[in-house]
Amino acid sequence: MNIEHDNIYPDCLSITRTVEVGGLTKSQLIQILQQHFILMNEYGERLFADDNFTTSAKAYRMETVELTVRNLGLTKGATTAQLFNKASQLGLGLCPLELAPYLRLEYLDQPEGNSGKSSQLHQAPYGSITIASEPLTEDENFPKGFYLRRINGVLWLRGYIADDQHVWEPDDHFIFCHQKKTLNK
């Protein structure tokens, strides 16, 4: 899974996935994540516990696109608002928050995220993939969404905090959904 860094979406190499979403409650999702030995950090648990994080009773499929900030034409990085705006201009949409646990369950072969590179404070960890989604609240101290990571062989569904001024690096990976490409089951 190599992503080219020189071209802008849709004229870049990107990774598309079709993910089945919905049909389970939050407690059922947590149970399945645990059965697959997928861990969550405190921020991920806070997202799951929030009443504003809802799940769909009906299953549906979504087409997702994984690419880097650079692949959106943002070669110097961007704030979350700039990133989401540029993605929208290119025909990509935000994902429902509930996509993250389903995507984590689908993507069990994620490459190792440590690879000898140390993470920097206030930056997306090396090897992580952030799911682009609308935050549940404007509270700067509440998690904004989820990211996927494999650390020392362990799969994680982690929540993260980032304020409006946070600048994502050009090589940070994001997953967006195709606008108007929700597939009915």
TrEMBL record:
Record-given protein name: Helicase
Assigned keywords, A-Z: ATP-binding, Helicase, Hydrolase, Nucleotide-binding
GO function terms (MF aspect): helicase activity
Keyword Hydrolase in record: yes
